[in-house]
Amino acid sequence: MNPKFFEQPILNSPYEAPSRHWELDENGQPTHRIVEARRQVRFLSPIPVPKKQRGTSQLELAPTLDEAEEAKFDLARVIQELRGEVARWRQLPNPSQWQVTPETARLLQHWRRSDWPGIRPFFCQVEAVETVIWLTEVAPKRRDRAGRRFLRRLEEVNAAHGELPRLALKLATGAGKTMVMAMLIAWQTINAVRRPNSPYFTRGFLVVTPGLTIRDRLRVLQPNDPDNYYGQRGLAARGKSLGAGLV
Fold it and tell me: What is the pTM of this model?
C-alpha cells in the first residue's frame, strides 16, 4: 500500500483556496492519487430518516434509496454551483464590482489580507462569510439567472419548514466556527449602524448553545469581554472600536 496518503494527508495551505486533493473512490477510500483541483462537493454519509410523526408511519416518511440519493445529488450540485459563483465574485479585482456596501468591501479587503497582524482567518472561514455576504448583498442585485436561482431555492426550502428564514453553514471540526460567527456579527453590526433602516442588517443576535461549557467559550463574541475576537483577533479594520456598535 502506498503510504503517502497517511504520511502527508494535508496538501493545501489553510489560508488559500484548495488547489489539489487526495482522490477517493466510490466507497470513500483513498486511491493514493493526487488530483490537481479542488475536491468536488460530495456526501459520503446517508441522509437521516425523518422521525415518526403522529398519524404517519415511519415507512411513509422514510425516503426510498433513489429519493435519498437524488436529494443528496441535488444538494451537492447546488452547493457546487454556489461555490463557483462565490469564487468568480471573489476574483473580481475592483471593489466597485463587488456590489456590496463600502463597509462590507473594507471588511472583505481586511479579512483577505495576507499580512494579517495576528491569527489570520482560514480560507474556509472567509469563504463561509463570503457566501453569506454574496447571498445577502450580491444575489438580490444580480440581473442574471444565477442570483435569482439561489434565492428562489432558499425561499422554497424555507417555505417548507416554517416562516423563519434559515441559512446553514457547515464547517469541519476545528475549522473555527466561533471565528465565523464573530465575522458575521461584525459585518452585520457595522452595516446596521450605518444603515439602521435596511432589512438586510441587524444589531441583535441570539446565540444558542447545547450546554454551559460551550456558552462560556462563546463569551468572546460579546464586545465587552476582555478577550473578544473583534479586538483580540483584529476582525474589524479599526480593531476594538467595533464594540461600541454591538448589542
Answer: 0.82
